[in-house]
Amino acid sequence: MTRLRITSCGLEFIAETNPDAPQTVSAFLKLLPYRQKLIHVRWSGEGCWVPLDDFKLENDGKAVGFENHTSHPSVGDILFYPGGYSETEIILAYGSCCFASKMGQLAGNHFLTVIEGKERLRELGVKVLWEGAQDVLFEQI
């Protein structure tokens, strides 16, 4: 498993890749270092997301589809939704979360898990909720 550093709001987290999502992991690692904006979810509960509009994550020229998708990420789970009923996105659960959009319940590939700093995820989520979009950086260690 590969380790990544995730930084946002002056906080640092360490995540490991999930072997049950090999296509998503492989494609995402090619994007590193990856900078985006993190905003609070609208329908999913206690989570933050990176909206990616119609972006297609590709691995060897093929769009990544569903692998080990779930609607119920645990605290520290990071999912990639390849699009379809809603826009492509990355979602990070910092508390109770059921992945959804205005179209209803969704499921995303669980490709990263926060293994260090998990106790500070709520602090990140609350800051994003009350202060708006925040820069986020994913980089390989």
Topology:
Layout: E1 3-8, E2 11-17, H1 22-29, E3 34-40, E4 45-51, E5 58-59, E6 62-63, E7 69-70, E8 77-81, E9 89-97, E10 100-101, E11 104-105, E12 108-116, H2 121-131, E13 134-140
Antiparallel strand pairs: 1-2, 1-13, 2-12, 3-4, 3-13, 4-9, 5-6, 7-12, 8-9, 8-12, 10-11
Describe the structure.
The protein has helices at 22-29, 121-131; strands at 3-8, 11-17, 34-40, 45-51, 58-59, 62-63, 69-70, 77-81, 89-97, 100-101, 104-105, 108-116, 134-140. It has 141 residues and is mainly β. The chain has an 8-stranded antiparallel barrel with strand order 1-2-12-8-9-4-3-13. Strands 5-6 form a two-stranded antiparallel ribbon. The protein has a two-stranded antiparallel sheet with strand order 10-11. The mean pLDDT is 96.
